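Run: sequence + 3-isopropylmalic acid -> complex structure.
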Amino acid sequence: MNQRIGIIYGDGIGPEIVTEAKKVLEEVASLSDHNFTYEEILLGGVSIDACGEPLTDEAVTRAKSCDAVLMGSIGGDTTTSPWYKLPPHLRPEAGLLRIRKELNLFANIRPAYLYQELKEACPLKEEIIGEGFDMVIMRELTGGLYFGNRETKEIDGVLTAMDTLMYNENEIRRIAIKAFEIAGKRRGKVTSVDKANVLDSSRLWRKVVDEVAGDYKGISYEHMLVDNAAMQLVRNPGQFDVVLTENMFGDILSDEASMITGSIGMLPSASLNDTKFGLYEPSHGSAPDIAGKNIANPIATILSAAMLLRFSLDLDKEAQWVEEAVQQVLKEGYRTADIYSKTAGRALSKLSCTEMGEKIRKHISRK
Ligand code: IPM
Ligand code: MG
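>> structure
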């Protein structure tokens, strides 16, 4: 079967990590009867430099013509990069927000899983880690504060800025359904996170989630206030299975959840619409400080490619090959700089970005 995969290299370490993930996809293709063709799509700072805007209409059309898109990371150093001298709608992040909206990618899945091999990198105490943890954050991605009207103007001579937080019940319902569906394939628990003691949008969120929960009797669920959820994540992360939340809370909580796994360099993500199409990217950013040094960790992007195989191309077995190869390479003690520890209690080998990609690819080739 021939499938079209969009490739967004992006900025910073993006090109380095996507190159490794693409090699992994090629390895998978060579071992099966699948043929992938690639469409390069410009997004972020590179698109600003080449076309004067972070995402062109042509790039959107190209992305829509693909079965799935694999992306690196976008953006630069916000204090030094000339991209951040531009008005907000022309900065790299505006391109990312636009592609999410144009492709209707409302469901953002961000797993946070503690690899047994990386326990030493987890900043939490042994007694808190317990048996480890394995959760997914299900973040609403095309609504809320990110997409409401915003304005900065003088009111009574005082400079004032406002951002609008708005959700309608349909937007809440469709993401809640995704969360309950995914929980059904996992440990069967949804924690819906909101700020219903203050916000109207959260009170509607609760009402709609309650309605959806009624259709999923086998799934246990609870509501949790976002400030409490931030605290519970470091107090007892093992209690979470699927965390369902709105856009801004999900942005913040997913960074927190990823940090307690030891390295944000390990975590993939998927952004899905209501078809099979998805955009897959690491949960981390473009790390401009280490760009071009061949020391970035390609694992989050490689695992994002695995999610792409599973969710958009229905290649479950192949996705598993990739995930097992990553596990195996970690088990053998190979680490990129971000997950390397001198005090791991055993000898580890420090690898570059390309060496790590190659190790994983080799493991897959033995399937
Ligand atoms: C993320 C990022 C983006 C977001 C930024 C780059 C706009 O932090 O994907 O989590 O806030 O959604
Ligand atoms: Mg973020």
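>> summary
Residues 68 and 278 are 5 Å apart (CA to CA). DSSP finds twelve helices and 14 strands in the chain.
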